[in-house]
Design brief:
- It is a single chain.
- This protein is α/β, with parallel strands linked by helices and 455 residues long.
- The protein folds into 3 domains: 174 residues, Aconitase, domain 3; 89 residues, 3-Layer(aba) Sandwich (Aconitase, Domain 2); 168 residues, Aconitase, domain 3 (2-Layer Sandwich), CATH 3.30.499.10.
- 32% of the residues lie in helices and 17% in strands.
- The chain has 16 helices and 18 strands.
- A 5-stranded parallel β-sheet has the order 5-4-3-6-7. The chain has a 4-stranded parallel β-sheet with strand order 11-10-9-12. The chain has a 4-stranded parallel β-sheet with strand order 16-15-17-18, with helices on one face.
- Strand 1 and strand 2 form a beta hairpin.
- Helix 2 packs across helix 5.
- The relative contact order is 0.14.
Amino acid sequence: MNTLFDKIWDSHVVRHVEGGLDQLYIDRLYCHEVTSPQAFDSLRSRGIRCFRPGRIFCMPDHNIPTVGQESPIQDLVSRKQVDALSANASEFGLTHFGVMHKNNGIVHVVGPETGLSLPGMTIVCGDSHTSTHGAVGSVAFGVGTSEVEMALASQCILQQKPKSMIIRVAGTLGKGVTAKDLALFLISRMTTSGATGHFVEYSGSAIKGLSMEGRLTLCNLSIEMGARGGFIAPDEKTFEYLKGKEYAPVGEAWDRAVASWKTLKSDEDAKFDKEYVFDASDIEPMVTYGTNPGEGIPVCESIPFSSNDKPLAYMGFHKGESMLGKKIDYVFLGACTNGRIEDFRAFASIVAGRRKAPDVVAWLVPGSWSVRRQIEAEGLDRVLEEAGFEIRQPGCSACLAMNEDKVPEGKYCVSTSNRNFEGRQGPGSRTILASPLTAAAAAVTGVITDPRELL
C-alpha cells in the first residue's frame, strides 16, 4: 500500500531525528557556481573533506556567457564564481565539467542525458528546478546552501518528509500541444501554491505518451505549482533513454539495474494525500499573460476579467484582451525546461521554409554541448540558419538575468523557460512563457500566434 515516493524516500532514510526530520541519504549531489561557494568555504574552515566525492558532480551554468566561451568571462562577478567552482572541485577531488568541457551544460540537462541521474535515486542540487530529474523515476529536489554543505560533508541531509500527491492525465495530447502546454495548464488549474508541501507523481495515458524530453519538461515545472518535486515512474521508455549513456550501468550491471527499476511503481492500492485527474483533450497551446507561471491561458483565449490588476499593469496588458496578435520583441528557446534536442526539433519544424521576423531578436541556446552536437548532426543548425536564426553556446542564458543574455526594460519576450516573474529575464523585462512551437510561431510572425496555424 505504498506510493513510489514512499518506497524511494523510506529506503534512503538513515535514521529518524527528533522533531520529525529524516536523515536522508543522497545518491547524487550536483553543484553549480551560484549556490556552492559558501558551502565549500565552510568545509574548508572546519577542515572537512567530502565524504563521498565520487557521487558529487560540478558544472557552471547560470553565469556563463552563451557567446565566446573560448575566451575569459568578461563579467568579473561571474568569472569569480565560475573560477571558484573549478578551484573547489579540484581541491576537494570532485568531477568538474567546466566551461567548454564536452559534458558541460545546464546541470538539469546534463544529469539525465549522461546517465548520472537514474531511477530510484535521491538527487539534490542547490537549485529549485532539480525536480527535473524526477522524469527518470528519481526523488529529486532543490536544497539550500546549508544543505549542500551537509551533502558534501556527509552525503546526507536533514529533511522533513513531504506529503504525496498524484496527478493523473487521461487521454492524448492534441495537435500542437506539448509537455510545456500540459505543465502550464496544470499550473493554471492547480495555482502556484496548489501542490505546496507535496511530492507529485504524474500518471495516466497522456503522461505515458510523453517522450523523455517531455517528461523532463513536465517534472521541471513541478516546482512552479509549489511542489517539493515531481516524478514519473520509470518504464521501458525510460530504460531505452538511459541505455548506453556515459554513466549508466553496462553489461550485467545494466540487467540487474533494469530488473530493480521495474519494481519502482506505486502499489495498486497506494494511498496518496491528494489526488487530481485531468483530461488531455482540455489542453491547448498555452501562454502566460501575468507575472507568475499560474497566470496562463490557451493562446486563442482572452485575458480573464478576474485577473489581478498589478501583473497586468507590469505587463502592459488589459482584461478581456486577446493574446493573439500581440507584438513581441524577443524569443528565447532554451533553459532546463526546453533546451533539449526535441525542443530544437519542434522549433525547427515551424521555422523551416520561413524567415525570422526582422524586428525579433532570437536567442536559441542548447541546454548542453551534447544537445548542440546533436543539433549539428541532424542538420537542424542549417535549417535554423537558413531561416535567419543562430545557435548559441550552452548555458542557462536568458532564463534568468545572471549572465549577458538580458531582455531590455519594457520589451516582450516569448520564452520557453520556467518563470515569468517581474525582472526575471532582466530589469523591467516582460516574459510570456510558452512552448517551443509557440515560441517559433512568434519568432517568424513577430506576434503571439497559435502554432497550430503554422503546423
